[in-house]
Amino acid sequence: MMTVNEVSKLTGVSIRTLQYYDTIGLLPPTEYTEAGYRLYDDTAMERLQQILLFKELEFPLKEIKTIIDAPNFDRNKALEQQIELLTMKKEHLENLINFARKIKTTGVNKMDFNVFDTTKMDEYARKAKEQWGETPEYKEYKEKASNQSSDTQKIAWQNLMLIFVEFGKMKDKSPDDEAVQLQVKKLQDYISEHFYKCSKEILKGLGAMYASGGEFTENIDRAAGIGTAVFAAKAIEIYCR
Amino acid sequence: MMTVNEVSKLTGVSIRTLQYYDTIGLLPPTEYTEAGYRLYDDTAMERLQQILLFKELEFPLKEIKTIIDAPNFDRNKALEQQIELLTMKKEHLENLINFARKIKTTGVNKMDFNVFDTTKMDEYARKAKEQWGETPEYKEYKEKASNQSSDTQKIAWQNLMLIFVEFGKMKDKSPDDEAVQLQVKKLQDYISEHFYKCSKEILKGLGAMYASGGEFTENIDRAAGIGTAVFAAKAIEIYCR
DNA sequence: TATTGACTCCTACGTTGCGTAATAGTTTAG
DNA sequence: CTAAACTATTACGCAACGTAGGAGTCAATA
User: Fold this and answer.
1) Is A90 in contact with B86 (Cβ distance < 8 A)?
2) What is the DSSP secondary-structure string of A150-206?
3) For A93, which of B50, B90, B101 is closest by C-beta distance?
4) Of A46, A58, A100, which has the smallest distance from its Cβ to B57's Cβ?
5) Which of A230, B18, B131, B202 is buried deepest, with most CB atoms within 10 A?
6) Residue with CA nearest C1' of nucleotide C26
7) Has residue B63 been placed in a domain?
8) According to the model, what pLDDT value does residue B159 have?
9) Half-sphere exposure (CA, 13 Å, Cβ side) for B157?
10) At which of B104, B133, B162 does a domain end?
């Protein structure tokens, strides 16, 4: 039988934590002395080992409790689910890192809220559908959109907006300037990678849509400066010739 | 001037959040009506935009406050630091994912606490040093150990232990069995990748150390079953001939 | 004008996993 | 037997809000 101090020293778990695990019923001590001191035996220690194992994998304590208490719990299934969860978190972080890098290089400080609004994205998708109908490109978009988490999607749209921000900073140049044309290519590549294969045909249609004066135009101009949408459309038009 | 409701609908930020940002001083409204209603103007909205931007990058609110309030704050430096932080988190998750995968395949349910104890790791390192002196391998270890975060190191040790767990499950086989020998190679590769280049010479020395009856032997046996250390040492000896 | 419905305010508890006192009783070594 | 070391319980603190409750406000309708 070991006291809290001994258990703590052996396992590295703090005394407070042991007390806490007792109060939440995760790891009740084997018995108490008359004075109320907690005493743990080997069985309790094994349970603690289990707890530490799952805690290491970032399971929340409540889940750990149900997992360990369930007599015939499917360990592997829980592990797989947790792996999935961790993977999603990882991807989220990867997205954020890319986003932060781009923010740094473009030096944005204004960004339209609608860009952050996921519901608007579907609106754009619907508009695109109106223009293109049930083309293979639209199907591809829907597929990618449904496969990827909305989180990944959201950040993809944000990064797309950052490309327009770069357009915004080139407005003093001519639309056929080399740097501007390169930017158009970056746009095309980005769309191809994250939404659907973007041929020059489609890009042309997009350019027209950007400058058509609708919500898309507004959003671009608000995020990247007034006139950016039209400017980008011009550059796109030249690029697609 | 916009009310909380309007701001909320425009930005997707909840009313409660706006109230909260007011109480913590992050985003005080431009003014209050006589009735105490919060009113926001364009300047406040821009500030909110900034806040959302940094929040997206998982900056804590307190930092966001200091960042935005500092008149000549080095944005890029803050972004770089945040990128680093996010990268560390990502690496941690990658480690955990690998750990979880290995746990799943090996089916461990016992793991010695000392394995989780970082302080012991340095002890092993010191022992290794006694055996090898200031060899280039030891220098390599120290370099890798200092470069990698202690977190990554810790999980590397855990995964090393899992390799011994697999040894433990092969104890009924002969040490020169093909599967066992393959396991030795896996051990060698793992050490090479995560600690230092592990030649057969060094591996031989390690094998002797594992079976020498010291703390290392105890830890291996406790984590992977009694007799595992000796068994692994035999297999290693054969492998190194 | 009174009422209704929509909106807003503030207060305050719940969440997660403990850290950190503060106060008081217990055990052990000298 | 006393002091040192250990333990217990209680309870606040943190991060970033969600949620609920009670009450005052605003705009429009009956």
Assistant:
1) no
2) HHHHHHHHHHHHHHHHHHHTTTTS-TTSHHHHHHHHHHHHHHHHHTS---HHHHHHH
3) B90
4) A100
5) B18
6) A35
7) no
8) 85
9) 27
10) B133
- Residues from chain A that touch B107, judged by Cβ atoms under 8 A, are 75
| Judgement on whether residues B154 and B235 belong to the same structural domain of the protein | yes
The values of phi and psi at residue B38, to 5°, are -80, 135
Q: How many domains does chain B have?
A: 3
Q: Would residue A67 count as lying in a domain?
A: no
Contacts of A50 in chain B (CB under 8 A): 109
Mean pLDDT within B213-231: 84
pLDDT in tens, A4-62: 999 999 888 999 999 999 999 999 999 999 999 999 999 999 899 889 888 988 899 99
Same domain, A36 and A122: no
Whether B52 sits with its Cβ under 7 A from any strand D atom: the answer reads no
Same-domain check for residues A217 and A146: yes
A35 CA to D2 C1', in Å? 21
Q: Which residue of A has its CA nearest to B68?
A: A109
Q: What angle do CA A162, A164, A169 make, to 5 degrees?
A: 100
- Asked if A133 is an interface residue toward chain B (Cβ–Cβ < 8 A), one would say no
Q: Which of B104, B219, B222 to mutate to test the interface with A (most CBs of A within 10 A)?
A: B104
- Report the CATH number that the domain containing residue B24 is assigned in CATH: 1.10.1660.10
Rounded distance between C-alpha atoms, residue B238 and residue B175, angstroms: 8
Q: Is the residue at B64 inside a domain? A: no
Q: How far apart are CA B94 and CA A83, in angstroms?
A: 10
Q: Do A96 and B58 touch (CB under 8 A)?
A: yes
| In the predicted structure, residue A135 carries a pLDDT above the cut 80 | no
Determine contact: B191 vs chain A, CB below 8 A.
no
Choose among A159, A149, A153: nearest CA to A120. A153
Query: pLDDT digit string (tens) for B110-131?
Result: 555 555 444 444 555 545 545 5
Query: For residues B98 and B93, what is the distance between their CA atoms, to the nearest angstrom?
Result: 9
Do A128 and A143 fall within a single domain? no
Query: From the Cβ of A3, is strand C under 7 Å away?
Result: no
Mean pLDDT of chain B: 83
